Amino acid sequence: MTRMEAVHIPVLCKSVLNHLQVRPQGVYVDCTVGPGGHSRAIVKRLGAGRLVVLDLDEDALRLAARRLAGSKAKLSLHRENFRNLPRLLRRLRIRRIDGCLADVGVSSLQLQTAERGFSFMKEGPLDMRMDRTQTVTAASLVNDSRPERLLEILRTYGEVTGAARVVAALVEERHRKRFETTTELAAVVERVKGWPRGTRLHPATQVFQALRIEVNQELKNLEEFLSGVVGFLRPGGRLVVLAFHSLEDRLVKRAFARESGKCICFSPRDLCGCPRRRRVRILTRKPVRPSGPEIRTNPRARSAKLRAVERLNTSTGGHGGGGGPRAERGRKAVASRLGDGAREANRGQDR
Ligand SMILES: C[S@@+](CC[C@H](N)C(=O)[O-])C[C@H]1O[C@@H](n2cnc3c(N)ncnc32)[C@H](O)[C@@H]1O
Description:
Elements: H1 3-7, H2 13-20, E1 27-30, H3 37-45, E2 50-55, H4 58-68, E3 74-79, H5 85-91, E4 97-103, H6 108-112, H7 138-144, H8 147-158, H9 163-176, H10 182-193, H11 205-216, H12 218-229, E5 233-243, H13 246-259, E6 280-282, H14 292-297, E7 305-311, H15 325-338, H16 341-346
Parallel strand pairs: 1-2, 1-4, 2-3, 4-5
Antiparallel strand pairs: 5-7, 6-7
Helix pairs in contact: 8-9, 8-11, 9-10, 12-13
């Protein structure tokens, strides 16, 4: 066992399994296999069932393949973005799944590998790509984005206080020398922001979070995944999502509310563009949080929130809004009012 395998502990694993209710003959998808912690627990409960696993990260898939080898279940691993899950399932000729897990965000494997550039605690290239075949990196964003765009990223995805001062310092610094490493960026942010009194959080934490979300398009991926996956769950099938910050959790909460037939635009009824189609039952009225002892043994679990739904036995299949032309007009009006879901989530419209 490598050191990384030893330190990686899957978050809220018991609760994930309780909510998935793995059936030995079932078909399951782990959309974010990472080092394979949750997948290992799932395959232990799968007899001759099937597990499809995805990750954007080649290193994670290699490690997961090693850790899952020897299981009885039919296993397939795919380097794929979970936003493309419907396409992948169609390619694999899978029409219905019994359960799906998404444990979004970065893994300890990624955070602790300096060359991946996710951590301000370790000197490494300013990279932050989960998918290393893509061209946009954290360095390209910091060095080449217009100041207004950088400001928007820091405010929207990091809720960075003093973002304008940080951006001004970054722009001044990059004229002198392009940013190349994580520690160069962290040092500039620390110089500008200092350590606010009474906090142990490094001043660069939110800046790194914001850049990571933008580099990997994390909120867009999650939003698209959430709108496509429910149509593939068989009646009784379950979807479990673990989120690690409020922007993600709000998207999950809203998507689950929409799929459970609630209005999430809060417009008058005849203007409402929400599908109002009850396709799922919400299993977690409040998100499940890790216990104190779990956080002590696995600090990465600290901010985790688990939400889960169960697919209902409805005859309606794929995704799409219902209603007549009035509802369609309403949908358009609401869509243009809300704009991008991620932006909206950040405005704190947690409904
Ligand atoms: C928190 S880790 C998963 C850990 C895993 N559940 C375990 O217990 O070992 C998240 C993983 O999701 C992957 N990931 C993030 N966004 C993704 C996306 N849009 N599509 C596929 N994989 C993604 C990351 O590369 C990372 O390996």
